[in-house]
Design goal:
The protein is built from three helices and seven strands; from the N terminus they run H-E-E-E-E-H-E-E-E-H. The chain is α+β, with helices and mostly antiparallel strands.
Length: 133
């Protein structure tokens, strides 16, 4: 039977399932150097892991020459935009009204990265929208 106003088409799998989210943003590496360096960063969310987000740094920043991916709780990123939070490998805190700091700890050292809060909030909104579609 053809689709009509009385008989709408069945929803497709694409509309019935959640969609992955990827946002590309610019971030600043914080060092002792008074001149900061901006880097491209990918923020990723996969509906298969609804409680996690991924922050991916490009391969050219890694000694191994591969993308450096950090997986962290979405709630940690969200809470860190309001107040300092986190323990262990990842810590997040607001830095003024428009910036946020994400600090990554690894055996090789510590990386301190500054993001625009607006970009992180936009990404988080997209993640929540993706799972409610």
């Amino acid at each position: 039977m053809p689709a009509t106003a009385e008989n709408p088409p069945a929803p497709s799998a694409a509309t019935a399932t959640a969609l992955a989210v990827e946002e590309r943003v610019r971030a600043r590496v914080i060092t002792d150097d008074p001149l900061y360096r901006t880097i491209p960063v990918a923020l990723r969310f996969a509906p298969a892991e609804p409680l996690a987000v991924r922050i991916v740094f490009p391969a050219d920043l890694s000694p191994e020459g591969v993308d450096n991916e950090w997986v962290l709780p979405r709630a940690l990123l969200e809470a860190g935009l309001q107040a300092p939070t986190g323990t262990g490998d990842v810590r997040v805190w607001p830095c003024g009204r428009v910036q946020a700091i994400v600090e990554f700890h690894s055996p090789e050292g510590v990386a301190v990265i500054q993001f625009d809060i607006a970009a992180l909030r936009r990404f988080l909104r997209l993640t929540y929208a993706a799972v409610t579609r």
